[in-house]
User: Fold this.
Amino acid sequence: MATSQLRDLQDRLRALIADPATLAGPLPELEERVAGLPIRGDARLSAAERVRIYAEMYAVRMRDALAHDYPALRVALGEEGFDDLTRRYVVAYPSDRPSLRDLGRHLPGFLADHHDRRPSWLGELAQLEWALVEAFDALDQPLLGRPGLAALAPAEWPALLVEPVRSLRLLSCTTPVDSVRECLLAHQPAGDVAAESVLLRVWRQDLVVYVRRVAVPEMAALRWLWRGATFAELCDWLAECAAPGENVPATAAGLLERWIDDGLLVAR
Amino acid sequence: MARYENLGFGIGLRAGHFGSLLEHGTRADWLEAISENFMIAGGRPLHVLEHVRRDKPLVLHGVSLSIGGTDPLDEAYLRELRALADRIEPVWVSDHLCWTGRDAHQLHDLLPLPWTEELLDHLVPRIARVQDVLGRRLVLENVSSYLAFEGEMTESQFLAELVRRCECDLLLDVNNVHVSAHNQGFDSRRYIDAIPGEHVAQIHLAGHRDHGTHLLDSHDAPIADAVLDLYRYAIARLGPVSTLVEWDGEVPPLDVVEEEALRARRAVGGEQSSPGSRRGDVAAA
Assistant:
């Protein structure tokens, strides 16, 4: 079999395995599509039935990979709803990378585009769950700690580089999706989810991923700080946003202490 | 003389066992890590991998090489794999004789190939390129199959010719031989007989499920007695070979998987299968 023939064979098999109709459609129809492929069948299983085994394994594998990354979403949608969503998602966004780790990266956007009258908090739940996945696999980095800060002379503070860890993700939500996720993972119903502005930071400290609510000023500071800045630049920016009479250096120092204790800053 | 040292009886490195491994270590002689699970920027998996590597020999086992695919080899993937191998220093690096996707669409399955001369010609330069990038011989595993193509030779004949032409080696998955033999209707012992023993680096054992019309290579159950029988047959023919118990689905606690590795050791007589014994040593005894 020449390479072009091998390529054609793999093209046809790939299409059959990834097509939901291979599982959902009638067997005679599949047998017509498989005819002409050099696949041996026997009394136990025809060539088409053998192709179906691979198609079923493919569907299960894709669903299980997405279920691993979106456990709360799966509970929220129920098994049938989650299966339906993942089946349609994988057709729209087939895996294109060696690792299944990246399969679900488009799911939050897909859910938003195909909401089918689903509540909006489902999309925010998917965003939160994907942020947790990304934080889990983020680059290990040395962290700025209190000893490092204590070793600084006062004159060194303005030039101190303040940079968030790569695992940090910031989410602006319109629902208390962090609490909803906890309920769903505890197999409790989400109930009526009221609108509520919730700002979340997701990050990994050591080997654990955290989710925490933050206030508007901290969220704004973290968004501004995304690519790093010096402590002096941070103070300047806070001064521009400060309320009348606010002690800007104290505010900056307070944020810095909280971020250091949470393992949010990189040591340089 | 066998090219590979007998590492003894090993188990797969699985995320559900990370805590136990960090706290208590393992009774297994060695471990096998799925390469793709550790080709990441950082985090807990790499921390655990480096921790276990300090105490035990380790091999890397990939699932995405698609050596039999007709897309160009993924050079970025090969470079990442080489970087991981340089970091971990595995005893060997393995993957599967199969294809996993086409036209950039990954199916994440180990898909079957037609056993033909043309496939051999297709594989020779690809295996050479992989071995060149990795700087070491590649070890390739026979996959379980649910369909077979009209071909020019049997699968085991193909494997024997492949290792001769490509100077690569084999990971003989005895459970896959049993499953494929049942599903395709060939003789599993004749398959083993055709395998060139000096090229076998490792053996896999695993559980499977009976679906009536076919066996499914599920890796979610204890090793079947029939597979242990075939394993005994293989060891009698090949001598001691590094043996790994795979358990990837519904993974039980670490001690259960370790017990399964001990079960495999008892199946072939523990003293003959201790780490470090070479096939030459056993033959002389």
Summary: The longest strand of chain B covers residues 105-111.
